[in-house]
Specification:
The protein is mostly helical. It contains three helices and no strands.
Length: about 90
Amino acid sequence: MSARLPARVSAQLVLLSMGFVGSEERLFEEFKLAKTPNVSIAADDSSYATSVPGVFAAGDARRGQSLVVWAIAEGRGAAHAVDKFLRK
């Protein structure tokens, strides 16, 4: 007998870990993003800025498949970079 889970669960933080195989080609085409040789979104290592002004990339989308701790760290770094960009 399996227990039913509630439709909603309260949480302060939810981390999803899904097999990431790379950004879809359509993303590069529609946003005119530069890509790396391993088909990740090309973005600056410190500012997370892509080839399109005002568009940022971090985590697996920028690095390719990696550890979740890198994705979390890059997400925080990208959030700071976006905040700095918006305050200009």
